[in-house]
Amino acid sequence: MSRSAHPAGPRHADVLPEGHYTAPAEDLNALDPKVWAHTVGRDADGVVTVGGLPVTQLAEEYGTPAYILDEADFRDRARAWRTAFGADADVFYAGKAFLSRAVVRWLHEEGLNLDVCSGGELATALAAGMPAERIAFHGNNKSPEEIERAVRAGVGRIVLDSFQEIVRVAHIAQSLGKRQRVQIRITVGVEAHTHEFIATAHEDQKFGIPLAGGQAAEAVRRALTLDGLEVIGIHSHIGSQIFDMSGFEVAAHRVVGLLKDIRDEHGVELPEIDLGGGLGIAYTSDDDPREPHEIAKALTEIVTRECESARLATPRISVEPGRAIVGPTAFTLYEVGTVKPLDGLRTYVSVDGGMSDNIRTALYDAEYSVALVSRTSDAEPMLVRVVGKHCESGDIVVKDAFLPGDLAPGDLVAVPATGAYCRSMASNYNHALRPPVVSVRDGAARVIVRRETEEDLLRLDVG
Ligand code: LLP
């Protein structure tokens, strides 16, 4: 189970009297390094700093809510993945987690490749100078225009997701006089232990071609006959926010089994396999993710072992972590607007953002933690629910947490581990203006995605 991020159902009843919770033993002023970006700490006045800058100054300059991203931490994590997998493997950062031109440049500099899944992500990658051959193009329903753009640009691989797409990509590539490198995405029948909406390798869902019933083998058979395609490998992505490596073990076993069948039938050893992304991060102190070097070692060993027993040369492995790189590197900074104690229940703390900047709590029942960051406090802990300012009672940012009992309007609070799938899934619900992403490094801050303005909203509304 993905533990804190995606419980199978609500972990607590919707309303539990305060007495049912025990106040945390730990100091509420402490910042657990597991969930906070690497350079986060508190200064002598108790104000939280990141990249050498106090959050009070960041709030003053850039306003709230804002996503604050620790660039050094992002680069460290990207490099750790790159180093862990070494020169014989490829790491594709999954752009869907969070993508901007600055991020693409950092990835390029750190030697990572990029997985994109839409024309918009492809455009961002190319605009920032990511070499096309280091881009993988994903998606279960790429439009002919998107495919053509990707083929023309010369992307390193297109990951084929259906029988129709095999023909579509082959046709487009051929008409452009090209031979497109492709992988075929299969579903291996693994139920990753995660929330239903983000588990992708069981068969009853929209992604990939099932291994079951020989469909994946048939897809390879057809793709190998088409001149417009160069089949370079098999792709499998089993889900997200996964801590347990056993799902990858089964997936690798089945993917290698297919490679063996392909060799036996066609006399071809496909040179690559991609095991997707999905590695979990700590959203709360209860989560214990593995380090990239442990993951790399485990995955490489699994694939090598499986290939040895199938008497296949070990293919080049690639992985596609998104959340595990960017997730922990950012937090969302909010200002408290109201503090509303409900007798015998809990205290509702309203912040100046909400489900428009973090839909994950409402959508997946994801758990987050929260801290008072503009000062320290020795007040007694109070049980809170951090909610947004949207017209919806499900507009919850942090469902259950403790904050100091003297919390007041004007205080700044921050929710850590919001780097992945928060800005990228942000919406304009209630005509909210999507917050900026401010990157910090060595005492300097820089807006990498600016705050939306009412003008931006009105520009789309053509009257
Ligand atoms: N590769 C493929 C083919 C994917 O579909 C995904 C995620 C990834 C890599 C990256 O997965 P990651 O390492 O970031 O877990 N919105 C959801 C997550 C959806 C993930 C979709 N695919 C969430 O907020 O948890």
Could you please describe the fold and organization of this structure?
- The protein has about 475 residues and is an alpha/beta fold.
- It folds into 2 domains: about 40-70 and about 330-460, Beta Barrel (Lyase, Ornithine Decarboxylase, Chain A, domain 1); about 140-320, TIM Barrel, CATH 3.20.20.
- The protein is about 30% helix and about 25% strand.
- The protein has 12 helices and 21 strands.
- The strands form 3 sheets. Strands 4, 14, 15, 16, 17, 18, 19, 20 and 21 form a 9-stranded mixed β-sheet that branches. An 8-stranded parallel beta barrel has the order 5-6-7-8-9-11-12-13, surrounded by 7 helices. Strands 1-2-3 form a 3-stranded antiparallel β-sheet.
- β5 (about 90-95), α3 (about 100-110) and β6 form a beta-alpha-beta unit.
- It binds ligand LLP.
- Ligand LLP binds near residues 198, 322 and 323.
